Each structure stands twice: as C-alpha cells, then as structure tokens.
Amino acid sequence: xxxxxxxxxxxxxxxxxxxxxxxxxxxxxxxxxxxxxxxxxxxxxxxxxxxxxxxxxxxxxxxxxxxxxxxxxxxxxxxxxxxxxxxxxxxxxxxxxxxxxxxx
Amino acid sequence: xxxxxxxxxxxxxxxxxxxxxxxxxxxxxxxxxxxxxxxxxxxxxxxxxxxxxxxxxxxxxxxxxxxxxxxxxxxxxxxxxxxxxxxxxxxxxxxxxxxxxxxxxxxxxxxxxxxxxxxxxxxxxxxxxxxxxxxxxxxxxxxxxxxxxxxxxxxxxxxxxxxxxxxxxxxxxxxxxxxxxxxxxxxxxxxxxxxxxxxxxxxxxxxxxxxxxxxxxxxxxxxxxxxxxxxxxxxxxxxxxxxxxxxxxxxxxxxxxxxxxxxxxxxxxxxxxxxxxxxxxxxxxxxxxxxxxxxxxxxxxxxxxxxxxxxxxxxxxxxxxxxxxxxxxxxxxxxxxxxxxxxxxxxxxxxxxxxxxxxxxxxxxxxxxxxxxxxxxxxxxxxxxxxxxxxxxxxxx
Lengths: 104, 397
Prior knowledge:
The complex is a heterodimer. Chain A is an alpha+beta fold. Chain A has one domain (2-96): 2-Layer Sandwich (Gyrase A, domain 2), CATH 3.30.1360. Chain A is 47% helix and 24% strand. In chain A, helix 1 (21-32) crosses helix 2 (63-93). The model of chain A has no long low-confidence stretch (mean pLDDT 89). Chain B has three domains: 15-85, no CATH class; 91-128 and 287-364, RNA polymerase, RBP11-like subunit (Gyrase A, domain 2), CATH 3.30.1360; 132-281, RNA Polymerase Alpha Subunit, Chain A, domain 2 (Beta Complex), CATH 2.170.120. Chain B is 25% helix and 27% strand. Chain B has helices at 19-26, 40-49, 53-66, 88-94, 116-128, 149-157, 239-242, 303-312, 374-396, and strands at residues 27-30, 96-102, 106-112, 132-143, 161-162, 182-190, 198-201, 206-207, 247-248, 254-258, 263-273, 284-297, 318-324, 327-332, 353-368. In chain B, helix 2 (40-49) runs antiparallel to helix 3 and helix 5 (116-128) crosses helix 9 (374-396). The longest helix of chain B is centred in the C-terminal third of the chain and has 23 residues, at 374-396. The two termini of chain B are 42 Å apart. Classes of the chains: A alpha+beta, B alpha+beta. The interface between A and B is large, with 47 and 47 residues.
C-alpha cells in the first residue's frame, strides 16, 4: 500500500486501493492546508483501475505520520459536520413554521 | 540577527491579507465571458505581486478575470505573513449549517465554511455510495405481455422500495439469500379476456415476509426441492421491521400494460447495493450544490440605467428604491436567486456590477427517492467518509 523511498521518510507515494476522487481530493485539501507539507497531490493512474496514488512531501516529518494525521483531521471534520447538521435539522424541525407545513 | 521563517515568528501579529487578495481568496469572479484559467504571462507576475505592493494593483487587475482556482497551499501567502493553513479548531469555529427547506423527500440547506473538495465528496458519496435496497433478481414464472422479460425486470429494478437499508446486510456471492439480506416481492396479474386493457402499477408487487414461494429445480428428483431463499423466520417478526411493513415507496408507478388475456406472474428479489454498481441503488434522484452568488453594485445606478438594469435580469435580482426627487436607484434585493447568467454584465454598464460567488458557501439540495429521508441520506454520507478514513488509518498503522 505504500511505496517510494525506503531511506527517506519525508517523501512517499501512497497507493490506496478501492478509492477514488472522493477520498483522495478531500485528503489532498487537508494535506495542502498542513504547514508541514511541502508538496502533495494525487492521481488516478488509469480510470478503470480502482486505485489512487497520493504523493506527500514534507519539510521534515515522516510523510506517513502526516498523512495519517490528515485522515484523523478528516474524521474530526466529518464528525463536526455531522453533529452541526443534525443539530440544525433538529432545530428546524422544532420551529413552528415547519410544524405547520407538515400538519403536525 | 538569526533568520526566522515568516510562519514561525510568534510575536508578530498575524497579518490580514490586503483587500484585493482576500477577495481573490474567498470569491470567484464572474465577468461577461466565462472564467478562464490563469495564463502563463500572469503566472510570472504572481511571484512579485506579493512582495511589491506598488505593482500589485496592476497584476491583480489581470488576475481578477482569470483566477478560478483557490490558493490552497498553506504557505501560499507566506511572503506577506498570512497563514493560509487550516486547523480543525478554526474549522469548528467557523462552520455553519442553515436548513432552508425540509420535507419528506427534499432538503435544501446552506453549508458555510467548508471547502469544495469536502462538499463534493459528500455529494459524490450521496449519489454513489450510500446503500439502499433495490430489486436485483426477477424470477419470471409467466409473462405473456408484450414487454420482454429483461425490460420488465429492468423497470422493476428502478422502483424505489420503502425499506431501511441500514437494517439489512449486503448479499455477497457465496451467501444464501436469507431474511437479513433479501426482500421478496410477488406479482400476479391477469387481464380479463373480454375487458379493457389493464395498467399494471407498482402496488401489484406484494411483499412476502416469509421469503420465496418458488421451488428450485433439483437435478436429483429424490431429494427434497429447495426454495430460492432460506428464511429462518418471517421478516415481519423481526423487531426492527415489525413496526413498518416493507413495500413500494410509490404505489402508482405504471410498470407495464396488459392486453385482454395477457398475464404476468413473477417473483422479485431485492438486495442491498450502492449507486456505483447501478443507479437503481442510488438513494437520491439527484443531489447538487451551488456556490452562493454575490451581486454587488460598485457604483450607484440611478434613473433610466436603474430601470434598464432591473429589466435586464430574468431572475429579478435587482429592485428599484426611491431616493427622493422622483429619482430611483437600483438595489440588489435577491442575490440568492442569481443564476450567474451574466446578462447584467454584458453590454453597457458592465463596470458597475461585480458578480461573484462565495467560495466556501454551498447551497445544497438533496432529493431523496424515498428509501431514506433526505436528511438521513446526508448524515449517512458523512458517516461513510469517516469509515473510509478509518479504513486507511488502520492500514497505515
């Protein structure tokens, strides 16, 4: 799942199977926003292969750790999106105008 | 004095970006012609405009028309001491969701403070990866209608089923169909010989909570024939299903028509699947987002010009306001309705109006097919993205 230089932990290419733009583009965004990352990008080598390559080059930290932390950040972001959304829906459902609309 | 990187200078207050760069960072500009990608010529000047303030005005005037891309790199503005990185805590502070409209099948909401890459990930997952139940196998006992078996089966597959997919398992290749992964429907319709033609509607599909009633043909006649499914109990007795019987979401969908004397007898087996395998499993008719339009009047538009402007807009974004002395001026009253058709910026008066989109404000619409309520489709999509991350993290460790 991981390849690249074995001697240089700063620069790595990670190959994720059964993933596509959905995950790769999201994590690429978070990696780009991480000050430790010097360069990152992703590519899908062939459209009929379910595989993405994510390239991470850092300013010093291990690329693997930085990528892992980005995924952890993505989970935190998702959890926050979900809780905020659920709260908004609950609030909206309790407003009088919504209850009138649904004949409750 | 030792050298320190701009980002590490703790005691220097974090500087704001100059106004034109802040606009460029947070807005997409729409001019009379379609936004084009940044050209090489302008690319060359981007390096200097961060440092040389006096040249910046000239460079950004060109850039405004050209840049649609975001500056994502955390050190993108390091030259002027602006930190473009994103911390989860900052995201938590700024992120907002506003529900605009909510009914059984449709939800419209604004998602503010998120990047397009994540908004698009949610959209992609809702369309292709949130599972639902759909008819996958049709056992046809008799079909004398004019519609071929395969077309009939295809039409059956597209019918939305009202069954919560979260209560079911995926049926893998080696699994036997059982009450946890298969829903069975039966249809038996006959059109009377001397009667009118008969429209077969989706309400003719009857749920069989006990599983298939058809027997498999066995090569050895002495063994007891097996059924196509092996249910250990009735689905109706399962605690999670018992309250809400399974059926078709819409009872008035016409499947086919039968002429006098024609009949159809079949059994349909629904299984769990995702939209990336076949669109019949997609929980949404469609789901889309658009960035919030922002319409600004840069100069006051009065009198005749104002009336012309109001007339020009097909979406009635502008309105007239009295300013006294029988004068009227144009105001932007409904920017949200703007479709960015650019009628108002074509021709004369172009320089008076700025058409922009807010980069981090998304107006989402989710249209559910009915298997799941629209708001649940979204929360399920977010959960799926979390699961994807967890999978990768466990493989990285």
